[in-house]
Write a structure and sequence with these properties.
The complex is a heterodimer of chains A (about 60) and B (about 375). Chain A is an all-alpha fold and about 60 residues long. Chain A is about 80% helix and about 0% strand. Chain A is built from one helix and no strands. The N and C termini of chain A lie far apart (about 100 Å). Chain B is mainly α and about 375 residues long. Chain B has one domain: Na+/H+ antiporter like fold (Up-down Bundle). In chain B, about 70% of the residues lie in helices and about 0% in strands. Chain B is globular, with a radius of gyration of 22 Å. The relative contact order of chain B is 0.19. The chains are: A mainly alpha (about 60), B mainly alpha (about 375). The interface between A and B is medium-sized, with 29 and 39 residues.
Amino acid sequence: MCRHKDTRPLPKGGLIMWGEAFRVAIVGFCVVFAGLWMLALGVKIMSFFCKLAGKKQGGANNANV
Amino acid sequence: MQTFELFQAIILKTGFANITIGHVIMWFVGLFFMYLAIKRDFEPLLLIPIGFSIFLVNMPLAPLTGKGELINIFFHYGLEWEVIPCLIFLGIGALTDFGPMIANPKTLILGASAQLGVYIAYFGAILLGFNLKEAASIGIIGGADGPTTIYLTQMLAPHLLGSTAVAAYSYMSMVPLIQPPIMRLLTTDKEKRIRMKQLRPVSKLERIMYPLVATVLICLLVPPVAPLMGLFMIGNLFREVRIVGRLLKASQDELLNIVTIFLGLGVGSTMQAESFLRPQPIFIFFLGLVAFAFSTVGGVLFAKIMNPFLKEKINPLIGAAGVSAVPMSARVAQKVGSEYDPKNFLLMHAMGPNVAGVIGTAIAAGMFLTMLK
């Protein structure tokens, strides 16, 4: 069976680069948002436990008094 | 005759005989930086060493930037080895008050939206023919964070280090010129007058816990920026524990001042006429401006988008502080706000997005490193 050599032009480097560029930008921007959102959530949880610890500390101090 | 030849040889070995028009142009560039610093008070701590270094390294035949020569040593061990950006972050951490951000964590999201300019400039750079690594290094200028720009560029496109570093620091110093027109354009008078509720006091325990929580989250999410974020947070821990006064003082003062001198001299030394007077650095300067402008736009517009969903409205001017030029852009938000309502105190509110911007830029840089390195 004779197989002709494929003479179609290869995908242009530019197209590949743009695809990669969009991927990097979209994933990057999403991770920036997700990362800072995670940090905001982390800070909220941290503040909650710190307040709780503060209250317990206050309660213990009052009990000592 | 011999005396004449000797005299001629001596003349040829002086700078006078080797001076070019490029050197003279760069002297004026250096003088312009020093003018901005001395006369206009734009980031004098940075622009004076950068400006003078530009002036100095463009003295023909001066043994300063060759291998093993004085300024090359600062550049090689400080910038190429990425020691200085991390030490600068240690000092910044020791100076930073995360209290406003801990009190109002919503402002962290403004720091993310203000990274818009990073990605706009990144695409702009690709359109102008830069490859992805170079485009990422140029885009990060929009984060308005000099140390992160140097850190990323050194890893992805070291040949652009001089141009990106100088563009980042130049535009950081020009925040008071670049941001206010954009902020005024994008907000109504009513929005500019929004008064924000006073921030709650933040306990010492929260302040001490924050650097630990942030280190865990950021270093796990984007390990490539652990050196930057690690030193940023340890500097902040020195500040908040209040029992290591000597380390805190050294980080805030002596160490930060010393590395700032080396940084300025090292960055300025990359602006030699032979390498700088080409179209590429001019494109980078232009894209840096685009990045800065769009970062401001992103921060302000996102604050406006958030407002309908919030009980306590945010003054959109503080969104502009999401670019991480600390504390300059927070001061700009305060200044523009007080033009419309002199009794509106936005500074502390703006510090939240401002420090969030530093973290946001570091995450953006970390993602570029993760995906492109």
